[in-house]
């Protein structure tokens, strides 16, 4: 999981003397220790935590090279969702039925959501990562790309270590998450739970502990029980495409008036929803309800979260989506060139990385409106040529 929670939520004071990113490694460790001591971590625990600390260049390579997210939704989802995974999800739902029943009753988080992320994060606990997570967190906290995220996580890991809940040689993901649903240290501090009743929170070895912890996290973020999160819909060709996008919710009843209809059943007309077209107006279409926005705090990639959200509906009985016949996707290099052109026109697209992220989608749609093209936020060769 990749939640970005406020530092105060985990019971840690905001640092009063955060070091500039990069710089001398020994000085970084000394200042991190000083911050930890200021939050109540005993000096001997901080020393043990930092005793084997080293920078891990392979972590930075992973952080810079997340090329998998350049894939479009259809390509990505077909890569991650197989019939074998659907069948395994059904089998594991039965094996852990009591835990899922408890979660659904007490927290209102449906089993489909947890099964989907359990599958994608670690292949149902089978592939939890083999990075030294302590060194991964310290490396990313020292690095200049996202120190505001990873420095508090490193401090939280030190706090967990002082509580006897974090082994310094623990193995996990390159970004510092551990366990079957991949939780960061601050998440573990706030939401780590004993799901199997043995008195221990074991997120790596106990599926029930991991599932309950993940569910408590979603509930803590405001999951709304008995409400949908994502629903496949059909969309009329006459729709004003500029109304679409995750950042433009309106009441589902308004979407119904505009001709948007569920592929199965009816839409939740009493809820707000955003119309999401991951491959533009000719591809799949989904209504994203308020619960969907919480899932984006699990992972910032819309393609990843949309795939997980869809897989959760599939686990709960939804059909395979209609892929449609979308316009061809741009290559990674073409996307980078498009992002450069958008940036030159004053749009904030974030990093020039060839990934169709949220800010790039907003910029694409704005330029489509300006140029009189169908404003469905899907970058095409026609848009690239026009720019």
UniProtKB/TrEMBL annotation:
Pfam families for this protein: PG_binding_1, SLT_2
SUPFAM superfamilies recorded: Lysozyme-like, PGBD-like
Source species, domain of life: Bacteria
Residues annotated as domain Peptidoglycan binding-like: 331-387
Gene3D superfamilies (UniProt xref): 1.10.530.10, Bacterial muramidase, PGBD-like superfamily/PGBD
**For the Transglycosylase SLT domain, which residue ranges apply?**
29-312
The molecule here is called Lytic murein transglycosylase
Gene Ontology MF: a single term: peptidoglycan lytic transglycosylase activity
Q: Which organism is it from?
A: Rubellimicrobium rubrum
Give the signal peptide as a residue range, or say none if absent: 1-18
Give the stretches traversing the membrane.
none
Q: Could you tell me the keywords of this UniProt record?
A: Signal
* GO terms (BP aspect): peptidoglycan catabolic process
């Amino acid at each position: 999981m990749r939640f970005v929670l406020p530092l105060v939520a985990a019971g840690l004071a905001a640092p009063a003397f955060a070091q500039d990113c990069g710089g001398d490694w020994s000085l970084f460790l000394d200042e991190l220790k000083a911050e930890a001591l200021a939050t109540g971590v005993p000096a001997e625990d901080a020393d043990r935590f930092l005793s084997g600390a080293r920078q891990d260049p392979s972590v930075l390579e992973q952080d810079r090279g997340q090329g998998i997210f350049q894939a479009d939704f259809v390509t990505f989802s077909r890569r991650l969702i197989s019939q074998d995974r659907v069948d395994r999800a059904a089998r594991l739902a039965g094996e852990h039925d009591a835990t899922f029943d408890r979660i659904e009753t007490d927290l209102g988080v449906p089993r489909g959501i947890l099964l989907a992320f359990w599958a994608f994060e670690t292949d149902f606990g089978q592939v939890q990562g083999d990075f030294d997570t302590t060194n991964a967190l310290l490396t990313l906290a020292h690095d200049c790309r996202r120190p505001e995220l990873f420095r508090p996580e490193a401090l939280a890991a030190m706090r967990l270590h002082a509580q006897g809940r974090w082994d310094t040689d623990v193995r996990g993901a390159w970004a510092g998450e551990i366990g079957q649903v991949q939780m960061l240290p601050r998440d573990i501090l706030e939401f780590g739970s004993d799901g199997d009743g043995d008195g221990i929170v074991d997120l790596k070895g106990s599926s029930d502990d991991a599932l309950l912890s993940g569910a408590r996290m979603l509930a803590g973020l405001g999951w709304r029980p008995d409400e949908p999160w994502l629903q496949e819909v059909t969309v009329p060709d006459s729709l004003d495409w500029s109304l679409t996008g995750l950042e433009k919710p309106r009441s589902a009843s308004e979407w119904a008036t505009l001709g948007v209809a569920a592929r199965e059943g009816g839409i939740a007309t009493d809820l707000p929803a955003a119309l999401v077209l991951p491959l533009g107006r000719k591809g799949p279409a989904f209504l994203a309800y308020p619960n969907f926005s919480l899932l984006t705090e699990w992972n910032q990639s819309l393609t990843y979260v949309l795939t997980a959200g869809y897989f959760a509906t599939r686990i709960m009985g939804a059909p395979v989506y209609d892929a449609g016949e979308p316009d061809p996707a741009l290559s990674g290099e073409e996307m980078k060139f498009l992002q450069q052109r958008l940036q030159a026109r004053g749009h904030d697209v974030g990093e020039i990385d060839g990934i169709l992220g949220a800010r790039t989608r907003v910029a694409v749609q704005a330029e489509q409106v300006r140029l009189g093209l169908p404003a469905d936020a899907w970058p095409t060769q026609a848009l690239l040529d026009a720019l």
